[in-house]
Design goal:
Helices cover about 25% and strands about 25% of the residues. It has about 475 residues and is an alpha+beta fold. It has three domains: about 1-150, Immunoglobulin-like, CATH 2.60.40; about 165-320, Collagenase (Catalytic Domain); about 355-375 and about 410-460, no CATH class. Helix 8 (about 375-390) packs antiparallel against helix 9. It is globular and about 75 Å long. About 40% of the residues are buried. Residues about 1-20 have low confidence and may be disordered. It binds zinc ion. Zinc ion binds next to helix 10.
Amino acid sequence: MRARLIAILLALLPCAAAAHTPGFDADFTGETMRLGLYQVGDARDELVTLHEVHRDGQWAGPRSPLLDPFGYGRYAVTLLDAATRRPLYSRGFDTMFGEYRTTGPALEGKKRVFERAVRVPWPRRPVIVEIARRDAKNVLQTIFTTTIDPSDYHVIREAPDPRDWVYEAMRNGEPGDKVDLVFVAEGYTAEDRDKFKADVDRVTGWLFSYEPYRHLKTSFNVSGVFRPSAERAMDEPRQNVYRKTTLGASFNTFDTDRYMLVENNHRLREIAARVPYDTLVILVNSTRYGGGGIYGDYCITTVDHARSKEVFIHEFGHSFAGLADEYYSSDVAYNDFYPKGVEPLEPNITALLDPANLKWKDLVTPGVPIPTPYGKEEREALQAERRKAQQAGDEAAVKALASRLAELDERLASLRDVVGAFEGAGYASKGLYRPAWYCLMISSPRDEFCPVCRRAIERMVRHYANTSP
Ligand SMILES: [Zn+2]
């Protein structure tokens, strides 16, 4: 109460806040506030409620700019000075509930509850916390508001659990000036600690084998936090496999085959708070193929499948850089995930509503038409024929169609290195466009990000690392 009174008095003093924009240190202590939220609802209704407020350690995020420069994510958190309503901090994010809303059961009105913890810098004075969700036109609408007094004794000031083991894999500088990447162990038993350490090193190696991460390596700090699980790997409901693990990771998320997420978000964030961090990766001790990634939340991958490297680099593109899936199904013309006539928020797909102002127009190869013809219909027709021939077991036809597809590839080889606007992206065959033929955000033979994704990743790295190109 007293802190609030002083804040109000300060605000009433002439020239208190109006004359200048106070920097980070004037508004924040340098620690982290963790807001443990629950989201309850279905496709239509949503209730957000605050469960607990925790004080975590050092704020690892950028100290400037404090207002979100990206605009990614279907949700956003904003802190306002309670006395003056001046915006102090904002950040977009996504949540598991946000994905649930797009699924069949949610559309049929089945209500579920999901955890999500959101972290913000620790304010010096009482703040209004607003959680907003994007509407069908992608405009942010506030769905939850509360006031938090950081001096309130109900705020939980527990120290992290010292039994969680920390591995500092790579340190290049102060957390405020680096991307602080933390790996959290899932499905590793107490005897697997050395394996976790080796896996952190191996996956770190994967990350820095790709551009633009490779040339930005010194902008990262990397660590691992290990809390043992009672059993190895994760649940696989479709296989009737259930394992007692620390985070409760499970395949068949939203009844999808290879999709794996964790629902124990509050526990995940409690464990990760052992170290300062900006971005989270959950390593699952399993040989199976699968994973997932949610922007501003975490990326999860198994570590011992032959394709774990590709899964990791793709899912980290979602969770860290806010990239969209560039792949699509030729069976799905349009989808509900990206409503028709609304420009997607992600930097690497577009509805091309205004072709003259394509969001990556400065990267487009000179002379390439927008949209970019690339033999899409011909290719899809050949692929459909090939599928039919495969089902019929007609080996000769399969072979003939494969060579016709190869001929088509050869004929259009000059398009392989250009940036344009290729139709088919964001799960939809029509109405959404991607920047290039190839990318790690689409299943393609070339093992690299397209130039648009590379730039989006680099921007995010530079945001956390406070560096300019
Ligand atoms: Zn891309």
